[in-house]
Amino acid sequence: MDQQKKQEQQGVQVEAPKPAYSPESLAQLAFVQQQLAAQQQMLQPQQPQQQAVHSHSPVDASVASPPSYEAAVHDAGGSADRADPETDDAANETHVAGTYFGTLPENTILYRHQVVPISGPSTVKVQRSAMHNNVESWDMVLDDDVDELWKYFVTYASKPLFFIKVTGTHVERRTVHSSNGTRTETRTVTDFRFELDVTEYVQDTWTRIVCVPSGAGDKPMTIREALETYALSTNKLKEINLEKVIAWDVYNLKKAIKSCVRAAGYRATITVSTQYPGSKVSAYASHDVSRMARNPWMQALCVITCCCVVFAPVYYLARDKIKTTMVCEFGMKATPQEFYVRNYRLIMALVIARKFGSFKAM
Fold first, then answer.
1. pTM for the complete prediction?
2. How many CB atoms lie within 10 A of CB 71?
3. What is the pLDDT of residue 152?
């Protein structure tokens, strides 16, 4: 109160913040708060990459069931929901539902049971990218040896990490009076930001791999043809990639999660996004030019000196990126509906407690 009076004396008028929760949801909020108190151990933030994996907790049958998954998907949306341009666009997630495998010739799809076991894991030198934890290699063995190239991709075709990130924000406005006139200032306040570790839901091994053409006019390739094309290329900037995807209807699941947040009484902006650290495996030419082009320090220097205006177009024109991407699909141990039912009350509790951090999905 003293702070408010002080601001008024300084000519600052602070608008009263809108309630974060609607009055009609108070009874439901009280119920979920009781659930939160009984789940304190579950809500402790996990230690990154070190917490033991536990089995999914069963849904308490004595507690009223959440709204149906179909109803949650249908009711999601609203002007206060924010779309994530990388993950909320249905067109960007069609591969997750296995669309690639239904549109390409059957002979271009390689199923796991068709793969001959490799003699042993690949021993090429690799590194992890700093930003996305992806696997990268410039080992010269991969330049022209198809068998070593295949062994490399199979060795590192382990399941990716999978996180669902939920963020709630609202905008605060205040009117400031000064000698120069009156102005309105705004700022975005984050009410909660938590991520659910869904990695345990991902199957331990991949189910099938397909080569997806880069362009609509590119001819579909088999895995062998893609590897041979890379091995025969003499381009000093050549590269070939394998991307890991999740066979799950993530797009509609995000809608259901937004409905869950709304059910907790939250009325401000909601953002739901997905992250897949370690979902890409890449092989690059062993030439020094290739290493320099991918070096983050060199890239930063080019940006600072504006050399990227000249060198970036030259790089993208000169590099030989194989006109296909190997897509490796991983199945899930549960359906999106089952995930929604298991984690409905957990998400509500995290929203009400305004939690920040990473938590294991139930």
1. 0.71
2. 12
3. 96
